[in-house]
Design goal:
Distance between the termini of chain A: 17 Å
Strand order of the largest sheet of chain A: 6-7-8-3-9-10
Number of helices of chain B: 25
Largest sheet of chain B: 6 strands, mixed, barrel
Number of strands of chain A: 10
Oligomer: heterodimer
Distance between the termini of chain B: 37 Å
Helix content of chain A: 25-40%
Strand order of the largest sheet of chain B: 2-3-8-5-7-6
Radius of gyration of chain B: 33 Å
Helix content of chain B: 40-55%
Chain lengths: 225, 838
């Protein structure tokens, strides 16, 4: 039997707020199969993005176990997590999170360089061409529109051909037409590389394009995995 | 524009507290504190000098004569006008114990000394008793340093000029010691009557007499001065009175504090960079608020005024903190400072220096905040939908540029007026502006080079990220290089000055300086003196010349100071020699040397460089008072004289017929092998006990020590600048911290390890620190050279250890500030940082 791409067992998350600890996620248990596309939906503040961050090792769980591709993320150090993401994960954020001091090309090349890939710049240029931004390679993020920035972020996340793609409301800051283009490209790139996709979204139509939809409410899963 | 509306907005905005203004307040407060502190100490010393004027002078007034005692006429005048007169002679001599000898500055006094104040001795006894001595030997008291140097304790014998004395006590306090000026040896005090048998005060020897006068209570000192000069016109007297009891000290304190205030102002300028950056960051963060105010109908004027009022209120707070520190810290430290200062000081809260510092603070704050404030006009309502300050990089409107220039002019003018030296202030201002320009250019150059190097860094992500951060948009290059660079520039300049002042004399002299100067050699002693030295194989060279001392009182029948101003040649008495032929160590560059046997009117050959500085021409007449007699001589030639060799150099050489008949002694320089110096001195002193030897190395050490003290005071003044510079750097690092935290979070998401991210942060900081340090070194060397060349008129040599320390310090400071903030960013989970940006 093929082990799942991501497995969460009894995972919880509490964060320290100004008025004391705030419980964000409660006893989450779920598996995401390899090659599967999974949509996480739910109202604002339900914990969707936090759950995604835990899957990416970007946040430390307060309890439970998170396994990705047979690696126990809970037991890994900050640097081990970084190396794991470098090798296996790509993340797309709602706010793009491009590095403002780097050009589009350099932003895309960065994970490839970190992975020690030869011809990182050439591959990055190709990845930008794949999202239709070959002409914008030498532009800085501040010189790009929101849609273009998100396409750069998409190219950056997919260029290393990750096993797992995490996307946190990738169209949340974009108009519907631009958002549609981004989603088309996201799904196309995922399909091209056969990556597992976990997508956080408010858009029911977008969620239905995924193999499975999970609903979060007040930090709990409404539908079992 | 409505002031009421603006004030209401300002008040509401300030309710948010002082968050983000820590560096702003610290920079302003530190600069104002340094300047007001320096000013307060100066005011305390000046008040002390005024109150203690009579005690410092040793009387209500003093008449000083060079080379002679007062004539009967002069003594009669003093007796007639003063209620009490005390006569003092001051000269150098050698204190001798067996074969051991040491240079001492002797003060021989009469029974009336001191007219004001008290001499303190150890063991405690009256001065009269100490100087009377016991048995057949007259008594003496001396400074502890000299007694220790000669191994003397009270009761032991020593000799001055061949006359034996018994040391009665150690001189603990000499009330009028601040008036003597620069002395090469520690003090010995004896009774003048005990020197009658010695040659130490014979006509022609080098001594000064001071007649201390006690005047009737309530006397008009200025009137007495005018009367003395009018009724004793040809005496060549110098008058001092209790209005300024220690003019040398007062002038020194005034000049040193003016210099230190300029160093403090440089610190304030460094702080200004931090102030400006803080206002920029504050307004950047307020862009959305300003844009919202615009949408609600606020005009440019209202918005500008609202934020100007906030900055003004914060500036007032910073200045108030600075004034409190600068005014109160010296007051709190008064008991310690009073024991450390060699002059009296009355510590209190003096309004004048506080006002001066407050004015500097207000002008600096206005100067450095106006430009960023002007940018509020470029924030439009549409900013709400775009990158906040991205479009605001253009120049502000002309009126703001003009106002900035006007503020700069007023600040420089104020500093010039307060410091009393527009030249030095101008240099400082030019230096700072030049440094700012150079730093701006170097930041641009660093960005350019980093952009060019980016392709070469492929495969080295940490280096490429660093180069991207330096060359890309929102680059840290300018704020970091400016904030660190200006502080380092001031430090580098002070470092170069410090090294050059400390090393100037020692560096320039050792290879050519003579071993000893001998003074007070009587004319009849000269043949034996030269014969003994010429027969000594360890002596390589002897120079000698007759020497008189005289004061240039008039130039072309006008008072000398009116013509030559404060030039050193007309301040006090100068050595004069006479010669038939042109001496070997000088050459005539203009005019003609007199012929031998010329017995016409007096002629003088003057040093060419000094003549040019004083505006003298061939044919001008100088009235020189020698031993109370005015000699009017015509300048018939100019000579090139090199004073830097420490050999014999005279500003004035006169024809023999003019002055050779006046009583005078000889001066000689002796060049000898160092190992034999002690023996040569011993042998000469035994044969000629009246002559005084000044060991050149000791004199150099003494002068170097003085210059070192000056340099140390400057270095202390600069430490405030260092602290300000570091604060500004921390401010710059803090301002860049959120961007770095975001970058670190994204890089971690993309798979970068913390070590790699830290390396990248450190590389960019190190490179910028290197750029700032290099520019600071270049600017520091230029500034140091300019001050040495134009102000101190000394040679300049680059002090590399200090320079390299500045560069390393720059790199270390940026690395430290960067690492401090980076570690926090690296320790934060990426999700936390990224979520805060969503």
């Amino acid at each position: 039997m093929i082990p799942p791409a991501i497995s969460l067992v009894d995972v919880s998350l509490s964060l320290q707020g100004n008025a004391g600890p705030v419980d964000i996620l409660h006893a989450i248990t779920l598996d995401v199969n390899r090659g599967e596309t999974l949509a996480l939906v739910g109202p604002s503040g339900s914990g969707k993005s936090s759950l995604l961050m835990l899957m990416g090792g970007l946040e430390l769980a307060s309890g439970g176990t998170i396994t990705a591709l047979d690696h126990d993320l809970s037991a890994m150090s900050e640097d081990e997590l970084a190396r794991f993401r470098r090798a296996h994960m790509g993340v797309v954020f709602q706010s793009f999170h491009l590095i403002p001091t780097m050009t589009a090309l350099e932003n895309v090349a960065t994970p490839l360089e970190l992975a020690g890939t030869r011809d990182a710049l050439a591959l990055a240029r190709q990845a930008l061409a794949d999202v239709g931004l070959a002409e914008r390679a030498d532009h800085y993020p501040s010189q790009l529109s929101g849609g273009e920035q998100q396409r750069v972020a998409l190219a950056r996340a997919t260029a290393p051909r990750p096993d797992i793609l995490l996307a946190d409301e990738p169209t949340g800051n974009l108009d519907s037409t631009t958002g549609e283009t981004i989603i088309e490209q996201l799904f196309a790139l995922r399909a091209a590389h056969g990556a597992t996709l976990v997508l956080v979204t408010h858009d029911p139509a977008l969620a239905t394009r995924c193999d499975r939809v999970l609903n979060l409410l007040d930090g709990r899963l409404e539908t079992g995995a | 524009m409505s002031l009421r509306h603006a004030a209401r907005i300002a008040r509401r905005e300030l309710r948010g507290g002082l968050r983000g203004f820590g560096i702003f307040l610290a920079c302003l407060a530190l600069g104002v504190a340094a300047i007001s502190g320096i000013g307060s100490v100066r005011a305390a010393i000046e008040a002390g000098l005024v109150q203690e004027g009579a005690a410092l002078l040793g009387g209500d007034a003093e008449i000083e004569l060079t080379y002679r005692f007062a004539s009967e006429t002069e003594l009669d005048w003093m007796q007639a006008n003063a209620t009490e007169v005390s006569e003092i002679a001051d000269f150098r001599s050698m204190a001798v114990v067996g074969d051991d000898r040491a240079l001492t500055q002797v003060k021989s006094v009469d029974d009336a000394y001191p007219l004001v104040g008290t001499v303190t001795l150890s063991p405690d006894m009256p001065l009269d008793q100490a100087l009377a001595g016991e048995d057949t030997l007259p008594g003496a008291v001396m400074d502890r340093v000299l007694a220790d140097r000669l191994g003397l304790t009270p009761g032991n014998e020593f000799a001055l000029g061949g006359t034996p004395f018994r040391l009665s006590a150690i001189l603990v306090n000499e009330p009028d010691n601040a008036t003597g000026g620069f002395g090469l040896g520690p003090r010995t005090m004896v009774a003048t009557s005990a020197l009658a048998e010695s040659n130490l005060l014979s006509p022609g020897t080098l001594f000064e007499t001071q007649y201390r006068l006690r005047l009737p209570p309530g006397s008009d000192l200025a009137a007495y001065e005018a009367k003395a000069k009018a009724e004793l016109p040809k005496s060549g007297l110098r008058w001092r009175d209790a209005r300024n009891g220690a003019p040398g000290v007062a002038t020194f304190v005034e000049r040193l504090s003016a210099f230190l205030v300029l160093v403090g102002l440089s610190g304030l300028a460094v702080g200004g960079v931090g102030v400006s950056a803080a206002v920029r960051a504050y307004l950047s963060a307020k862009a959305a608020t300003i844009a919202t105010l615009r949408t609600l109908g606020a005009t440019n004027g209202t918005v500008f005024l609202a934020y100007a009022l906030q900055i003004a209120a914060l500036s007032a707070l910073g200045i108030a903190i600075g004034l409190a520190l600068g005014g109160l810290v010296p007051l709190a430290l008064a008991p310690i400072l009073q024991t450390q200062l060699p002059v009296p000081a009355i510590f209190s809260l003096y309004p004048a220096p506080l006002f001066e510092a407050a004015l500097y603070g207000a002008l600096t704050a206005a100067l450095f905040t106006l430009w960023p404030l002007a940018r509020t006009e470029s924030i439009r309502a549409a900013t709400l939908f775009r990158d906040a300050m991205g479009a605001a990089a253009r120049l502000p409107r002309a009126r703001y540029i003009l106002a900035t220039l006007a503020l700069l002019t007023v600040l420089i003018g104020t500093a010039g007026a307060f410091s009393g030296s527009f030249r030095l202030t101008g240099f400082t201002a030019l230096g700072l502006l030049g440094a700012l320009l150079l730093l701006g250019l170097s930041a641009a150059l660093a960005r350019f080079i980093a952009r060019r190097l980016r392709p070469l860094a492929q495969g080295r992500p940490a280096l490429r990220w660093a180069l991207a951060a330096i060359s890309g948009p929102r680059s840290e290059a300018l704020p970091v290089v400016l904030s660190l660079g200006l502080g380092l520039t001031v430090l580098a300049t002070v470092g170069q000055l410090d090294g050059n002042l400390r090393g100037a004399i020692a560096r320039d002299l050792p290879t050519i300086a003579p071993s000893y100067f001998f003074v007070d050699i009587q004319k009849d002693q000269m043949p034996g003196f030269t014969e003994q030295l010429e027969g000594d194989s360890a002596v390589s060279k002897i120079e000698n010349a007759p020497m008189l001392r005289g004061v240039i009182s008039h130039i072309n029948n006008r008072p000398a100071r009116e013509v030559a101003g404060e030039h050193w040649v007309v301040q006090g008495d100068r050595g004069i020699t006479y010669a038939t032929d042109i001496p070997d160590n000088t050459r005539v560059v203009a005019g003609n040397w007199w012929g031998s046997g010329d017995i016409g009117p007096p002629q003088v050959s003057f040093a060419a460089e000094e003549a040019e500085e004083m505006g003298l021409s061939l044919g001008d007449t100088l009235t020189v008072n020698v031993m109370g007699r005015d000699i009017e001589a015509t300048i018939t030639s100019f000579r090139e004289v090199d004073f830097s060799t420490a050999g014999m150099g005279f500003v004035m050489i006169m024809d023999p017929a003019s002055v050779s008949a006046a009583p005078h002694t000889y001066i000689a320089t002796v060049y000898a092998e160092p190992d034999h110096e002690a023996r040569i001195l011993r042998e000469l002193s035994q044969r000629f006990p009246n002559i005084t030897a000044i060991r050149v190395k000791d004199a150099i050490a003494r002068v170097t020590e003085m210059l070192s003290s000056l340099a140390s005071a400057t270095a202390w003044g600069a430490s405030a600048t260092l602290l300000t510079g570091f604060l500004v750097l921390i401010g710059a690092a803090a301002a860049g911290s959120p961007a770095r935290a975001h970058e670190a979070a994204v890089l971690k998401t993309l798979g970068a390890t913390r070590r790699r991210i830290l390396s990248s942060f450190l590389i960019r900081s190190g490179l910028l620190g290197l750029a700032a340090g290099t520019v600071a070194l270049i600017a520091g060397i230029t500034g140091g050279w300019a001050v040495c060349h134009f102000v101190f008129d000394t040679d300049f040599a680059v002090i590399w250890p200090s320079g390299l320390a500045i560069i390393l310090g720059g790199v270390a400071a940026t690395l430290l500030a960067s690492a401090g903030f980076a570690l926090r960013a690296l320790a934060t989970r990426p999700a936390r940082t990224l979520r805060s940006r969503e």
